[in-house]
Amino acid sequence: MKSKRANYPKWVEEFRGEGREIKKVGSCYYLYTFKTVYDPMTKKPKKISTGYLGKITEDSGLIPAKHRQKATLMKPLELGRPLEAGAVEMLELLGSDILENLQLFYRDELAEAIFIIGKIRLIEPTALKRVDFLYSNSYDTVLHPRIRLGKNELTALLREIGRNRLAQVNFMKLYTVGSEFLLFDGTRIVSYSENLNLAQIGYNHCSIQDPQMNLLYCFSLCPTFGPAYFKVNAGDKPDVSVLKNALDEFGMINFIMIADKGFGSDENFRYLQDNGISYIVPLKRNDSMIDYQSLKKGISHMEGMFQYHNRTIYYCTMKKYKAVKQRGRVKAGAEHKITVLQDLVITFTDLGLKNQEIKDYNERIERGCKGYTFVDFQEKEVRMGTLTLRTDMDLKAQKLYETYKERESIEDANKVYKDVLEDDKSYMQDSDAYNGWLFLNHISMMLYYRVFNCIKAAGLTSRYSVKDIMTYLKRFTYQKINGEEIREIPTKVSIDKLRNIFPEEMKRIVPEKSNKKN
Known about the structure:
This protein has helices at 10-13, 70-73, 86-94, 96-105, 108-123, 131-136, 140-143, 151-163, 165-173, 239-250, 266-274, 292-295, 351-366, 374-380, 397-419, 431-457, 466-473, 495-501, 503-509, and strands at residues 20-25, 28-39, 44-57, 61-64, 79-84, 182-190, 200-203, 209-220, 226-234, 255-258, 278-283, 304-308, 311-325, 337-350, 386-391, 477-481, 484-490, 515-517. The strands form 3 sheets. Strands 6, 7, 8, 9, 10, 11, 12, 13, 14 and 15 form a 10-stranded mixed sheet that branches. It has a 4-stranded antiparallel sheet with strand order 1-2-3-4. The longest helix is centred in the last third of the chain and has 27 residues, at 431-457. Helix 4 packs antiparallel against helix 5, helix 4 (96-105) packs across helix 9 and helix 8 packs across helix 16. The protein is built from 19 helices and 18 strands.
């Protein structure tokens, strides 16, 4: 569905021209440049922002952006050691709009620090205590010099970011313009910190009751895939109860709730339906809505199949109907009842996963594990390798499956930062600091998906991960000795492969007259 262009006042519209777009944040108007590129995955053109021009006001017209040139105005550092440059430069180029938009809502030095930390935590996921060291050994000291990232500075930085929720929300709103779908994902983050009042005893689908926080994430599915919004709530609140607060704060429509298997209760479904919230929810394998009798007939009786990540997925569609009695006298030849479609339920079977589950179960039987018997295996075998999804939307089986699977990539990205939470606990002295920490991770996730989307557009996700790309690029170094700039490119790195993924960016990172390391 194509979004309609907003009608802004005449004094705003006069600045719109070829290659320019206007974004409204609150009551303010901002002017950006953009370009249209061809997306080989969707086979359609897509629009991407390329720069920030300034703020539009009725009295002053266009107030140009403050294009800071601190790195070129200050005396360049004389460095005798090589600095990691490739990954830093790549993220600087891919995320230039992120820095510019941060500068709309934060003071200059704070905006730079947020962006730098976001880059560093993607290049090398690490505890905050190592950020200052990594910064001092990176090309960021040339691009953004004199940024202080010691422990005291970081603690103050986290609190300043966390206290200003309005700035976070206004920044995030810039990245939902034109989005067709917004995807919510609830995840639980366990924390034993006594200083976080958000960490409350809560229940999750793994039956683990620990002090935890409920992190609700929103991802834009179109025109580009990536994180758009987050909100953290106390861990004793279920996912469904915090949705309304998030919607009110962000003012969004047209989204899908993608939940985990612990979500599928009648009460939760009623809440979503009553509030007009679309959903995709996986059902537990023992759910009564699943008709396993049809699956016992075998693969040959399945409704269809498709390929997903080089695996064959079979599916069987089950529709749940609600019978409605016809009022009044029934005419001759008419049916006594009509049926109304309520929800769509589809069971998917992955034979590769099924064979692995059968193997694992049989190994447990052979080891004599309690609760594992051949009789139980005969009963459960038909369920193995299956995934059943329930939705209120009219989606084809493959589209439904692929949309749900996007959740896994979201969880993978979240896991990186959940793993370093324990190392960062000394900085989490209160909820403000924790909210600031989450915003830094949000910037890292935005950059993560900038790289991921480039890999995906090149059709190379089966060969390269974001981590692979960062590893390759980290080997590009920069030195300045006696006023001479030296860039070293290891011969092991395949420049041509990187150019296939980042054609424009690599022209900037690898100048023609670069010194190659032998």
